[in-house]
Write a structure and sequence with these properties.
With about 350 residues, the protein is mainly beta. It contains three helices and 25 strands. The strands form seven sheets. The chain has a seven-stranded mixed sheet with strand order 1-16-15-12-9-10-11, with no helix packed on it. The longest helix is centred in the middle third of the chain and has 14 residues.
Length: about 350
């Protein structure tokens, strides 16, 4: 069923002209910034020596675009090199890789770009397997799900967000890379990725007919004249069009999703309102070298909420955000790490576990 949002006379005066293919659907929620909420004072932690790492970052899994966070694991750095640990602080891979450790999504295979010999590599493969922590990625053709809004969908209604335009692209080996229409998606795929999907509008790339890869992002214009890039659509075709969003992350089952505006990150609620301003720095995933495609150490994405919280960084100082957009630990710490089960906070003597702030 196609959803429509009827606007009053005053709102109609704001409509701007755009071509039918590029017109933003009109059945959407506009975004506003929620007032800042008062933060909860952070509890103190133990004075015992903590973990000695320079940084602890949530590991990500590359079986979706954008990448999704791993629960139960962190990647950590020391002297510019990266390793892997369980959420409880148990080291699994030493800090020897040039970029943060991530997961390729295939059978729990970790990408650890460390210059080690074959015997050492095999020893860590056996260690990870024996402890039930996956294995190492030896390099292969994996897969990644992503979603986009196909402007070339036959019969697409360009006056509303139309569920017929939802396409799921499973990037994989040749012969398995054709897009899947939203109405053909299995229920478990919807259940996994959530009822609001981050998408961008695009045409199917005519030069990629075998792969059917979507072409470049196509901008549109909201009814009030604001530019729309990434946006959200649900299974029924209802849409959220936050303003000037350069990239958008998953909600999954959480109340907020990270969205990027001009290089900074804000958090969007399920009504399409900004629960925070765009004041947070990227803290997870890894940038890629534009020439080689290699992973770099610099973070690339805002943190996802996991079990109601996200580690955030503002002006170089760290805190913890809750599901209302409130910093329950103010961005005044040397470091904060959270992956859904365990909270680590960096202080003078290292990283220490903390209990979540009480509500």
């Amino acid at each position: 069923m196609k959803q429509r949002w009827w606007m009053g006379a005053a709102a109609l005066l704001l409509l701007t002209a755009c071509t039918p293919q590029n017109a933003a659907p009109s059945n959407v929620q506009s975004a506003s910034v929620a007032p800042a909420a008062e933060a909860t004072p952070a509890p103190t932690s133990t004075s015992q020596p903590g973990l000695p790492y320079d940084e602890i970052r949530t590991a990500v899994r590359y079986d979706s675009t954008p990448a999704r966070p791993c629960e139960g694991y962190f990647t950590m750095s020391q002297n510019g090199l990266w390793g892997l640990m369980r959420a409880d602080g148990t080291e699994l891979l030493p800090c020897q890789a040039s970029s943060p450790v991530s997961n390729c999504g295939a059978a729990g295979e970790w990408i650890w770009n460390a210059p080690v010999d074959w015997d050492t590599y095999e020893a860590y493969v056996k260690k990870l397997s024996a402890s039930g922590d996956g294995t190492l990625c030896g390099g292969h053709g994996g897969f990644s799900y992503s979603f986009f809004y196909n402007l070339d969908t036959p019969g697409l209604d360009h006056t509303a967000t139309d569920p017929a335009g939802i396409y799921c692209y499973r990037r994989s080996t040749p012969g398995q890379s054709s897009p899947l229409r939203g109405d053909d998606m299995e229920d478990d795929l919807w259940a996994f990725y959530g009822d609001w999907l981050p998408v961008y509008s695009a045409h199917l790339d005519p030069e990629g007919m075998e792969m059917n890869w979507p072409g470049p992002l196509v901008e549109s214009t909201r009814g009030d004249g604001v530019t729309v890039r990434w946006w959200y659509i649900n299974r029924d075709g209802a849409g959220l069009l936050p303003p000037e969003v350069d990239r958008a992350g998953w909600f999954f089952s959480e109340a907020l999703a990270p969205v990027e505006q001009n290089g900074q990150w804000a958090y969007l609620d399920r009504q399409g309102n900004l629960a925070t301003e765009a004041v947070y720095e990227p803290v997870c995933d890894s940038r890629r070298d534009p020439t080689t495609g290699d992973f770099l150490a610099e973070p690339d994405f805002g943190a996802y909420l996991q079990n109601g919280y996200a580690a955030v960084c503002r002006q170089g100082r760290w805190g913890l955000l809750d599901a209302t957009g409130t910093e329950v630990i103010l961005c005044e710490e040397d470091g904060v790490a959270w992956e859904g089960t365990t909270l680590w906070v960096k202080e003078g003597s290292g990283w220490h576990q903390r209990a979540l702030p009480s509500s």
